[in-house]
Amino acid sequence: MSWINSLMARSMGRKPKAAQKPQPNLVFAAPPTAREGVSAKKPVDAAFPRFQSMAGDQLSPRLNDRFASARIKLRSAFTPSQPITDRKMFAGRTDVLTTLIRSIEDQRVHVIMYGERGIGKTSLVHVLTQAAEEARYIVVYCSCGAGSTFDEIFRAVAGDIPLLFHSGFAPTTDAAERGGTLADLLPTTTLTPRLVADLFAKLTGTRVLVVLDEFDVCDSPEFRRNIAELIKNLSDRSIRTQLVIAGVAADLTELVEHIPSIRRNIFALQVPKMSASEVNHLVENGEELSGLTYDKAATDFIVFVANGSPYLASLLSHHSGLAAIDKGRTHVAVEDVSQAVDQALTEFRGRISKHTLLQIDQAGKTGVRHVLGVMAGAALFNNGRFDDRDVDAVYPSAANAASFKATIEELAAKHMLLETHEDEYGRGYRFAEEAVLPYLWILAAQKRFLEGRKPAVADKPAVPTTEKAAIVAEKPPEKPADKPAQAAIATPRAAGRS
Ligand SMILES: Nc1ncnc2c1ncn2[C@@H]1O[C@H](COP(=O)(O)OP(=O)(O)OP(=O)(O)O)[C@@H](O)[C@H]1O
Ligand SMILES: [Mg+2]
Question: Which terminus of the chain has a lower count of CB atoms within 10 Å, N or C?
Fold first, then answer.
């Protein structure tokens, strides 16, 4: 594989050229005089970049741009860097929410929600919280940190539960009337699961949901063991407190490896990728809130590249909306999404190490990068993993499949972009860096979507064989918006495996 070898030589052996020494500065420039303009007062430069709105969200009084208010609305219509907190912006997921509510309300179990980064766990938790609060549950939300301890978290939880729900304090007692909380009853010694369960056993007249979000961030075995013990205690004694745990994990075992004994007491839910109609819904919600309109083709492009990820959908909708506004339009077209995709690619590139970028760019000189991109699309919602079956799904011809499998094997053997990975599904591959997945997928999806839109031209430039096979196998569907997002990519087994 000549390009692999040449790359190996570049990334391992050859030293970069020594940077040229700066030439001594022989001529000293005189400082500019006032007449040359530096200290002379200039009129305020209208083109100098400015904030467009005030910190209090009002429009800047300096601005007479008629699109400034559209820009402000767009900012809160799509929030790619923040979870959804407002039900108006929450798209789809009605089945998931119904299942969660039923398991909390009817089965009285504790809930564990797990899934890939950015799949929408925190947004789901926020919407679930609102629904529970409407039913008068007391919901205490905690975002776990690397150093979170059981003691610290449950003192904070107890501090949010009013004493008037403690069976030992009538609502008219002084302590309850003064706004006391369960935290007032805690000892100064370190809290144990038994102690917390004893206290919560006294709750009456309400139910409490304790939400532990970003659970994966705290990997202290002691913290996890304590949580497991608490769940066991709460369940065995039918205490009116339930836990909702959310975190990034490939499977449940990874998230609760220290708590195998509580499987009977929990409902575990893997948050699925969004269907195409849910991503469409996400764009429609944003249209309503921002006042912008997205062309059908623009929405299709977003749905196709998002590949079921609410994060990617929100990011592309946001960037493309801004691109349209910058061009003085309130309707968003395919070219704006294309610009947004380029911007997203630049952002993702910035998250990849220089060494890996070099390998990616080198792979781009052959057809390999495109097909790796399609594999990345399959791996995005499969814990970053793909295997030979995904290759077979992409290549219609056995000869091409065999050749690409050999290339993948060689890449993995040389630790270039890929590594081999064994798990219960057998031998597969993983991308060496997490940020490579969305980057390669977006590159491939952009190319595929735009190829699918091109009118057939007789003298089209030749496509490398490997790339051609992939393009043939993965033409965008006729109407991507009407089909589930999975249908648009070559991952027929991804759902079954996860
Ligand atoms: N149902 C939804 N409707 C609209 N946008 C959504 C929805 N779910 C998630 N998003 C968007 O997707 C992005 C990621 O969502 P969120 O932060 O909830 O994911 P997460 O799984 O908690 O991520 P992480 O693993 O990083 O904690 C956010 O920008 C959010 O605005
Ligand atoms: Mg989250």
Answer: N
